[in-house]
Amino acid sequence: MVYFFLRSLVKLTLRMYFKNIEITGHHHIPKDKPVIFVGNHPSAFMEPILLACWTWRPLYFMIRGDMWKKKALAWLLDAIHGVPVYRKSEGYSSVDANKKTFDRCVELIMDHKLLIIFAEGSHQLVRRLRSLKKGTARIVHQALTENPDEDVYLVPVGAIFNAPLLLRRDVHISIGKAVPLRQHLSTTSNAESYNQITAVIEQSLSAELPSLTSEEELIYEQLIYEEAQFGKPFSQQWRDAEARLHSLTPDDKARLITDTKSVDTDLENQVLSKQLHLGHWLILILLAIPAWVGKLLHMIPIALSQRVTNSIVRKKEFYSSLRVATLLVFVISWYLITIGISALVFGSLWPVYGMLLTGLISLPYFDLWRVARARK
Length: 376
Known about the structure:
Helix 11 (288-297) crosses helix 14. The chain is globular. The chain is an alpha/beta fold and 376 residues long. The protein is built from 14 helices and eight strands.
């Protein structure tokens, strides 16, 4: 009950935070079979949150085990389907830590629950796939050996963000084709099985992500922006940017990399290739008043969210997740205050409805406004 209630609230907040959210490949998820989601991990919490909100079946994901030490927080973590990961730094031996975590993961997989594991083993705000740890392969191996009559299906999940540190940008969650893993067990040794399963995971997950080097990350963001067009889904946009990147000569790549200081350089002012038509300009003119009213009425909770997030976050991988959380808290609080004032002063909730309507108008309006300003 708590899981589904929070999922609804978070889903609404995500629609406010992101301009476009694309989740593709739901049909690849096997029904009534043991499944394990394996994804890349560019942010701290955003990938499992997005997948949980747009997957009809409940999702389970791993969280640091030391967070269960507080009883009130432990109740909430259990309610949102967190799976504790125990580490040696928390007083557990390596064997104990693995056993507790692996046993719980195997139990969920064989009960046909949806469990996502981030095989890179840590988070880093990059778009390329980093080297994989073998913990996922060990979990799969344990599930297969303990259940010889069952197969386990790998479902790769790629998460691609467009400027995730900024509001109203794009995200694509790509769910790839399911791959049965029993055939990749080795008859020679467990170590060989781990290597083979990890290789399959890497191959499957790579197909859902752009193929980049660390240096190419520096220019990929700008190419994504230059590929933007109205009506063009972000999933196609980032793939076209990847194709364009790989069509560049080595000299052109080197020149662009030299000219670009970092992935996050001046993202607010990057040039967009979207063409504005007469209809777009009419929208900017006709909806200007309600859009600006909506922006002003929501300025306080949005500003508070940004200020609190900036004061807390020390690693950029946590930024988007915490920004969504603070937006959820401050926007709900703002509406509750407005409802109280509206009921006391006006004896009606019409001012609240007006604030909500103008707020909904302001979101796409200022997406268009940003494009218009960038083209000056």
